[in-house]
From TrEMBL:
Organism in which the protein naturally occurs: Gossypium trilobum
PROSITE patterns on file: BTB, NPH3
GO BP annotations listed: protein ubiquitination
Domain NPH3: 211-462
Pfam families: BTB, NPH3
Protein's name in the database: NPH3 domain-containing protein
Length: 562
């Protein structure tokens, strides 16, 4: 006897379609009505379906003996198309063609309906699909992609893990790394095995053998990509290539994604990048991602991860990278708080030790950044000071650039109090100023007078130390012991004497120049001291005159009253 079933509603792919009249005339039983996800309704033979499904069998054991029963599935895996495959399996007495294109859908549906040994015996659909999945190593690359695509909207299961494991394993084999998946059709089984290396190179046209799969896997959902990357990391796949793929995935998805999808893609990409080795990720690409993030409201956790990754590579950044506009509603021009967070992440270092060379590179970068933001009239002194003192003193060999930035800031912010100016100026290491910069500061009216005195004192101490060093060298070269030594080695060192003599002459000339400069600086210090004393005496006179005026006005009050 041939079994049939009826669907109510249009179903262009359903071959077993009979009219109710023909069913009733032929005596076919239709006592079960099944609503699949609200999309379509099927009329089936309850006895046939329940003989394969443990879930429906248990359901009808508890129900009354009604002439017709109705079942509503709200979340049937694979929808109407997949339920049709299940119905075919049941009506064909447990026979169906299982292949890579439908195995995943049948597997999920069989689990959903509990189609196991306890119900159907040797016609167990779960067992049949598992046997097909065990042959996954023989599947083509296209079959793997098709199966993963089917599984994207379904719950994770063993089949997804097996597919991903097989897929990552093939990516790790250089000789078979390019199965021409982008140029092959999903309907061409065996193509992966038949494609040789030479044809692959000609078809890929300049694509690196390590990145041929980027476009193929970009069709996967963010959740599936997260699982894929975790598998690749566990298999110790090259982190540089993984990072490049994630950046490619973000770009390709953004062309057609909705705002919500962009939000999910970005968070997945950032979270997966965070699991990779920091040195394997391009700093430039991270800044590009951050500029995209500015227009999307991603989670705080993902944003912190991105800032931490950028901060750990701050020595590779450029000035243009750091010039990020301030958030909406902020008065200042650039996002100074963001740069301060980058600096904090850099100095923490994570698992890596921050080398002196890297710190100095960041110090040079920060001097340029501070000079760039200094002309901003809306930048508060507290934020400017935070930038100036953010790095340790060892980050700068010279304070000239920092002095130049502070000079610009004080010129634009002329209304600062002396206390605010002194806080900023105290961040300068006067000993690291060049002679020219020190002279310029001592004559700079924008800086407090205390700063001018301090820079002159530090320059004086520096010159004294240099003089002491040269004098010690001179004493050593003229000592009797040294004379005896040199006399004993006269013949050996005869060729070196002209060089040593010329070096001594150079030292003596330098000493004369240093002495002259020191005398000039001492004169300027004395002049400044005289100016300070004169100002103090004038202030004292003003205070005395004010006190005298106050006392005279106090005496005149009783006379007026009388």
């Amino acid at each position: 006897m041939v079994y049939g079933f009826l669907t109510l509603g249009a179903s262009p792919f359903f071959p077993f379609r009979f009219l109710i009249t023909s069913l009733s005339s032929s005596g076919v039983c239709c006592d079960l009505e099944v609503d699949v996800n609200g999309e379509e309704t099927f009329l089936l033979d309850k006895k046939i379906i329940c003989s394969f499904s443990g879930r429906l069998s248990k359901l009808f054991d508890k129900s009354t003996n009604a002439k017709r029963n109705k079942v509503i599935f709200r979340d049937f895996p694979g929808g109407v198309e997949n339920f049709e495959l299940i119905a075919r399996f049941c009506y064909n007495n447990g026979k169906i063609d299982i292949n890579p294109s439908n195995v995943s859908l049948l597997y999920f549906a069989a689990q959903f309906l509990e189609m196991n040994n306890s119900v159907s015996g040797n016609r167990n659909l779960i067992e049949k699909t598992m046997k097909s999945i065990e042959e996954i190593s023989y599947w083509t690359w296209s079959d793997l992609l098709a199966t993963l695509k089917h599984c994207q909207d379904l719950q994770s299961s063993g089949i997804v893990e097996r597919c991903l494991d097989s897929l990552v394993g093939r990516l790790a084999i250089p000789s078979e790394a390019s199965p021409c998946a982008s140029t092959s059709s999903l309907d061409s089984p065996g193509f992966w095995l038949s494609c040789d290396t030479r044809s692959t190179k000609s078809l890929k046209d300049g694509f690196s053998q390590a990145t041929w799969w980027f476009e193929d896997l970009s069709i996967l959902s963010p959740d599936m990509i997260e699982m894929l990357i975790k598998y690749m990391v566990s298999r110790k796949y090259n982190h540089v290539i993984i990072g490049r793929f994630l950046f490619h995935y973000q770009k390709s998805k953004f062309y057609t994604a909705s705002p919500e999808e962009k939000h999910q893609v970005l968070e997945t990409v950032i979270d997966m990048l965070y699991t990779l080795d920091t040195n394997s990720i391009s700093c430039k690409s991270l800044f590009r991602i951050y500029r995209v993030v500015l227009n999307l409201n991603i989670s705080k956790n993902s944003r912190n991860k991105l800032e931490c990754m950028i901060g750990s590579q701050l020595d590779q950044a450029t000035l243009d990278n750091l010039l990020i506009p301030s958030p909406y509603g902020a008065s200042y021009l650039y996002d100074v708080n963001l740069v301060l967070r980058f600096l904090k992440a850099f100095l923490c270092g994570g698992d890596q030790q921050v080398s002196p060379m890297r710190i100095k590179k960041v110090g040079s970068l920060m001097d340029m950044y501070i000079a760039e933001v200094a002309p901003d009239p809306c930048l508060k002194s507290s934020k400017f000071l935070a930038l100036v003192v953010a790095l340790p003193d060892s980050a700068r060999d010279s304070s000239n650039e920092l002095y130049h930035a502070i000079d610009i800031y004080l010129e634009v912010h002329a209304g600062l109090s002396d206390e605010e100016k002194m806080k900023i100026c105290c961040a300068l290491n006067y000993e690291k100023l060049s002679t020219e910069a020190g002279i310029h500061l001592s004559q700079n009216a924008k800086f407090p007078s205390k700063s001018a005195v301090q820079v002159l004192i530090s320059q004086q101490l520096k010159l004294k130390n240099l003089l002491q060093g040269t004098n010690n060298t001179k004493l050593y070269t003229n000592s009797p012991c040294n004379f005896i030594e040199t006399k004993g080695k006269a013949k050996k060192d005869e060729a070196c004497e002209p060089t040593l003599y010329s070096e001594r002459l150079d030292i003596s000339v330098d000493n004369e120049k240093l002495r002259e400069h020191l005398q000039g600086m001492q004169c300027r210090v004395m002049e400044l001291e005289k100016v300070c004393k004169k100002m103090q005496s004038e202030m004292a006179k003003i205070m005395k005159s004010k006190a005298a005026a106050h006392s005279s006005s106090a005496r005149s009050l009783p006379r007026l009253c009388s």
